[in-house]
Amino acid sequence: MIVTFLKKNPYIKLACVALGIFAVSALIYKMSPSSEQAIAEPSKHDSAACNHGVGCTHNHQSFGDSQTKNPATQYPAVRLQNPVVSASQSIYQSKPGDRLKLNFGEGLVFEGQVKVNKAFPENRQSVSMRLLGRRGSVYWLEKADGSVMGNIILTEGEKNIIYRYSGREGDLVIRQISQQAYVCSSGETDDNIGMPVSDAPFTPAGESAIIPLLNSLPGAEAVVYIDFDGEEVSGTRWNALEGRPPTINAEPAGFDEQQIREVWEEVAEDMRPFQINVTTDRAVFDAAPQNKKMMCIVTPTSTAFPGTGGVAYLNSFYDGSIDPCWCFNLGRGSAAQTVSHEIGHTFGLRHDGLTSQNDPEYHRGNGTWGPIMGAPFGLSVVTWSDGNYEGNTNTEDDLEIINTRSAAFRDDQYGDTAADAFDLAGDTGQEAVGIVGVVETPQDIDVFSFTTSGGSVKLSADPEGVDVSNVGFVTNMNIRLQLYNEAGDLIAEDDPDNSYAASIDTELETGNYTLHVEGANSGSPDVSGFSDYGSIGQYGLTGDVEGLGGLIVEINQPQLEEVSIAAGNGLVVAASVIGGADSVMWRAVGAPSGGVVTFDDANSKSARASFSAPGLYTLRFRASLDPIFTDKELKVSVETASQARVYANRGPVVSIEPADLYFSREGLITGRVSDDGVPSTGQPAYEWKVISGTLEVPNIRAQRPNIVFNDNQPSLISLESSDGLIRTFAQAKVQSFYQQRTIVDQRATGHWFIPKNNDLGLDWTLPAFDDSSWNQGPTGFGYDQDSRYSAFIGNGTDLESSMKGQSSSAYLRIPFSLPQLDYVQGLDLLVNYNDAFVAYINGVKVASRNAPGGALSWQSKASSARSREVALFAADIDLMDVPGILNTGENILAIHGMNNAAEDGDFLVNPVIQADLIASPFFAFLERYGLALDPNELPAGDHDEDNNINLVEHALDTDPTAANGDFYPLEAGSSSNGSIKITLPIDAPEDVDYRIERAREGVEAQNWEVIATKRGPGAWTGNSIFTYIDKKVGGNVTYSLRELNTAPDPSNLRLYRLGYSLRGPGGNTAPN
Hints:
Radius of gyration: 54 Å
Number of helices: 10
Shape: elongated
């Protein structure tokens, strides 16, 4: 291979030294196919004159192309069988100034003088010669493989005649070519060579910026290197031209970093459809193959071809030559376009012109668009072209020429159809879209698919472009967006007239969709637009799709796909759904024989799963949004304490030890938690939850918290614990027989009296006082002027006519009854009042509000006036704070109500008494038969005197007010075979514990042994006891019980008896 060094200018070297950097740059070229192989065969033969002179024996048929409108550019090749240089001389040993005899065939025999003989690494060598005796030059380049390429330029007057040769010495092929097929040119003279000079002014920014190392497609084999920092160029065809120095010292462009980036970005955009890396990194260029790279030097030094805006040799990107191309147009609106134009020549492209212009060679653009191979300086859209416009001078297919000769199209990153579309759904739960794509060819359509659960869709596609200072936004592409539904119907489209970007903003229903991104025309290139041919390149697709991915389902609890839990425990499960499902459902899709899974709310994302038996279960969570759905599954192994773990982690083992029945408003409950130490050895936390009912747990983190009941209905309480991955629970039903009752309500019957003297003293507060002569009516008592208290004052208890202007005091008496005080846990007096009162229970003062101190009299007044609004809120007095004042049965509430003055316009006393009762089943039993208010009707009482105490009557659900005769629940009080029958209520009361006792040696107390027990309506339990239901008749059930392992033995008679225990207030034990 041949190696050429393009040296940097000396002051650039100094800059490198100042930075502590020293580098030697080299261009390494690999062997390429011959130039003849790379030139397509022409489609038409034309005649053309030969320039060899009279008597030439060449075939004078020339080659042109009427289809592309290209003139004849090459002539028939001639094979030279003899060495070009005589055997006595060697072209490679020549020195500058040496004369060489050159024989390129008939009519092409010259004497040349060597200007430059330059050897490069890897056996490359170039020789530049000027001709003696006539104007012209010869350039000779030996490649690394020993082959030769070069050219002859003969100047006749102003016209240049060019020959190109290649092959091996002694076997060269030579042919004449037109100047347009050789170099960037519009004709056959030097004046025709080079791109026009841009009118855009350029003032260097000063010292050149440090070059940013930029790469548009790292790793691509083909490389375009834009050189901004100057070069020393020698040994190239540029140096062989007439009047050119052996070394061209190209100065730096003088660009600042922003200008460098602008040029690089614009050129990179032009090359984006191809597998080409546009770089500013010299090392990347040096490493590229010689027939797959090109250097474009951006410089104010136009020595290579003065008076031009840029220049390049055709086909030099891939023919193995070592010649750079040049950009001398340095204006912001022209530099990048000049670089791409000259690089296009090195790909083998020729000019795109316009016949209607004064200079038809270079299409100057239509005000908006122009072709890269024209000279459309300062326009916003500049693209490759196929000449599809009126007045074209060239219809060659730029894209296909680059694709086949220099660098192939990029691989299509995104599919072109719905079948191979790219799914927009990214990370779970992400609705944002951010994609960079490339439309590589005019036929390419990038298709993206997505599923949405419905909602807003906002997507925008923006073409790559460059904001060029003082010019504006420059791009290659106009974008069209199209949105299709699953049926293939177009439902939205955007290709706006006022923008090269496109966007779709719409609402979508649930379903599957595809989005098409393509390059589109914008008007007509014959007016002020452009076709879709060059409307290709890179774009960014951004936006948001609500519900992107459809229904995205994750099971978040537990955080494992397979878990073990202890038998008797439940599992907390939770899932997340992104996409707005219209329904969700948990269900078991696998279970052991007889196993059943119960979910507390199967149609919720969060649920509590309970398992009826040990074994392996599969739970499935499904989110649906018609017509789509998504499933996730969870494996659960439910294991007894003796079983080994099936899966790596067993959730915490949780248990509750409740007093299932509570006979007070508050009580304690105990929880226990243990864990297997996976994933950590820390103690799992406690968390109590009320699943149903009105129960309250003030401290949900305690192991043994206090619980508070608000009614007498059952509540379901749960203890949960988590090891960080699995959350398990145990739950229990708890119930208190606490009940809040209103003993004196707002319309209770009361008596009232307006005193005229102190004759009554305080006797009127006692229960025995006779108030039959007093006025009677429903509570409350009082009067007002604006009906503000009308909701409180009863019919017959409006005291205005009796009290206003006559007295400031009123005496009030309200009787009330209480059950047995064991069942009363709280008693509250609530009073709405204006202005004052003193309350007595059974003659004992229990409360005073706003009343004067000392002894009261019949005309006592309130200490101060109260606002009428304050009276709307009741004062609350706890009557249990005064012990010994209450009676089972009848009680009297007496109130001395006071106004601030007899003339006050309003007065109010409205009393209500509320009681907190333990309304246990036994209490309800007494109430049912009217015995609750009788202080004698304790569990041991026998109201009907039938020898069955109230506890027994309650346990057997018999009438305690009527003798029951001979009713014996135990059919066999003795047995020789250990068998008995017992008849009890089917709905046995929950506060009764039943027990069966057996004696073998007499009825003395010490001989009785409990062998079976039953709590309320529960089942019988006991060691070595077999129980079954014999029959059900009416509301009773008969149980048959037998002691196991007991053979019949008439001599060993067993005695049995049935006992009862009452739980709760007045608890008692009674045998039958």
